[in-house]
Design a protein that fits this description.
The chain is an alpha+beta fold. Helix content is 42%, strand content 19%. Helix 5 crosses helix 18 and helix 8 runs antiparallel to helix 9.
Length: 983
Amino acid sequence: MPDRGGGPTGPRIRVGRPSRRARTLLMTLGVLAVLGMAFVMFAGFWTDWLWYRSVKYSSVFTITLWTKIGLFFVFGLLMAAAVGLNIWLAHRLRPPLSAMSMEQQSLDRYRMGIAPYKTWLLLGITALVGLIAGASAAGQWRTWLLWVNGVPFHKVDPQFHLDVAFYAFDLPWYRFLLGFGFAATVLSLIAAALTHYLYGGLRITSPGARATAAATGHLSVLLGVFVALKAVAYWLDRYGLAVKSSDFKATGDWTGLRYVDANAYLPAKTILFCIAVICALLFFATLWRRTWQLPVIGFGLMVLSAILIGGLYPAIVQKFQVQPNEQAKEAPYVEKNLKATREAYGIDGAQVTEYPGRTDTKDKTALRDDADATASVRLLDPNIVSPTFQQLQQMKNYYAFPTNLDVDRYSKNGRNAGDQDTVIGLRELNLEGIPKQNWINDHFRYTHGYGVVSAKGTTADANGQPVFTESDLPSTGDLGTYQQRIYYGEKTTTYSIVGGPQKEIDYSDDNGEKTTSYDGKSGVSLSNPVNRAAYAVAFSEPQILYSGAIGKGSRILYNRTPKERVEAVAPWLTIDGDAYPAVVDGHIQWIVDAYTTSNGYPYASRTTLGDTTADSLTAGNNQRAVMAQQNQVNYIRNSVKATVDAYTGEVRLYQWDTEDPVLKTWMKAFPGTVKPRTDISPSLMSHLRYPQDLFKVQRELLTRYHVKDAQTFLSGSEVWQVPDDPTNKSGNAVPPYYLSMKMPDQKAQAFSLTTTFTPNGRDNLSAFMSVNAEAGSSDYGRIRILKLPTSRTVDGPKQVQSQFNSEQSIAESIRLLKGGDSDIEYGNLLTVPLDGGLLYVEPVYVRGGGLKYPLLRKVLVTYGGNTAFEDTLDQALNKVFGAESSTSPPNTGTGNPPTPSNPTVQQALSDAQKAFTAGQDALARHDWGAYGQAQKDLEAALKRAEEAQSRTGGGKSGSTPSPAPSGSPSGRPSGSPSSSSGG
């Protein structure tokens, strides 16, 4: 063993190889590390396969996997072969003797150093570039599947007269192939040049020729291939003009050809294509001529032509031909853009009707009756009342409702969709409310939510609380019998292990906790030790491997949010931001709208989904954000309706748009994954609705594309905007609202999705837009736009809200309502077209004091310049129109049920009446101290009445709520303040 160290008299340090034991240990650790990494990769693959198999969409996993593997190996091998072949060829063409120079002597040392490892070095380089290229190609699996399975649109673009499928399915794949070709050529050129230089084929400082004939020929061919690919790029660029985005001063973002594109860029690309072909041939000719003189001259001319023909000439055309007469020159191309954009976004059938914005009807009673017939005004705002649902129906801290509830339709008995707008939410599991959080509680005992809670959307009870049609725990009411356990929901973001020896907490009642054990077939079995080990690694939770709580029958549930499940089984779909629940055939089903999109529709303007679908509700709420496969699109269809069973987790995809070629293409790529539309049951059909995100995309496009005349479009005089939410200070767009109403040309109310428009930069109203949202209707999806006159102004939502806030009597009442520590919350400002005018209705909620949840206290209504601020909608409508309805029974509105017979309730109501009278007297005397005390007494009496009513069953869904003291449905005089506690 050699010694190394100091001088003859210095210390000697013995350095040697590690001992056999150390080498064995290091080798063992290395093998274990490799095996560990291999098992981690295996765990990811295996758990994905098990999950897809458990949801019965294993074909999605296998088709996607084999497509990625195929692309990886094909293009990885092609890249490796291209680079490796050119390195081998450059080495083979090396000169037999290198020139004797300092440069070559320096290179000799490198040549000798790598000589023993040439084969391994070649394999290493080719393997590296092959892996990188293969990984990049595998990411193009969607592009490949669209190209190989593409079906025609049966629509052609107006410039080249090619089917839209060429731009949507073919052109993206051709561009990928072109990019791959460029990458392979450039890498091969660099590798060949370096090899030639290393072995003397290329010389920089050596005397004599700079390149051998063999190196010249080899590199010339590669340069010729590069220029040939550039010629192909020029040719594809011609078609790319039809889907090219550009900044157009007259309209902003623009897609498609303009005058300068059709008359300058298009011929320029054709000329450059011809020049590039000639230049490529000159490079290939170097094989015989052995000189670069002509190809270099040709390449220089191509570059110069690209600058002059491809850059300077279009700029001259734009400056001297287009700008002096822009509207006339661009009008034909704008018309193509208008037509294509309207088709691509499904807004070509939008019906625009002139609407006066004011009424000529003099009969007050007729107007009052029409108000009832035109709309079932939804006073219960699903985006406000979630805390009220939480307070009244949470029951246990480990349950919770979503921040934004949903609106659906149910008939009087609640079992099917009908004419009653209903606010609905699920009592989902809230892990943060578990009494004691640990691994067993979080994942074994508390596993699911329980029950539906629903309330009438058009009314509230005498206390401002929702009138529940389904409530309590277990939930009872109008919805009948259904599976109430909720294992899959918007709040179930963690995994649960069910079905094993550990019992789950079902719910609690007066008799204590009830337990259950999941008997569904959902999830993946953990009885197999391999599965347990794989999930222990995948979830970084070793207890899964050895915990005694897991045994025979144990199954792991994950990927549990509805949007997440649909996105996983259909990774080619874009998922709407709002999944909503419905009770269908004895099961709670999450209904998820899904879209097919494309970014290759010729002439159609692009939109960014994330921006277009944002509003005051999505701000800061990722659960309501759209899940987009591609964020920028210029074609969208609501092609799929999906359902997720809240108990079993079963995912079903239904074909909704039977004409969509993009969906047909994906159905061809993934056969059997999407069920035909005819499989949708009538009970499910009755709960389907027009999706919000599609509506928001369409309304954004309609701010400009409601006009069909190119001159008007270019002038920008008719540009609208979506107004900001007047009840929200975030500065975000007002969300669209669901409510049952009828437009002027409709004979009956229909469940609709509505929005308003204002002129660009102004607050008055430009238009009102509605779409029929009833899926079972023959009129479903029809967009109606009422266009307001431009010769005079009609108040928009922001102006109406300002009027509400500035009117002295209303402002005073609101100030009194906000007395003490109470807060005012404005509900959705609903707009309803009525007899030529516009009816605005806004519920007003009070939250404060001991009541930490909002209660409906007032209703704001305005029509034709008349405004009312009353306790009930009926009272407000009567005041605004100066007449009572001839069709409604007395004392209707937000709810005035008959007096109950319960003595305790009667006594409490008698006390409430006395407190109310005392408050009125104090109000007349302006004795605010006495008035505040009277309001506290009133609140206490009403609370006693409510508790007594609940104890006798009145709190259950469908029960009759407590009446208010006479004189006011809410227990307060019109315009009077609430108590300091907000009651």
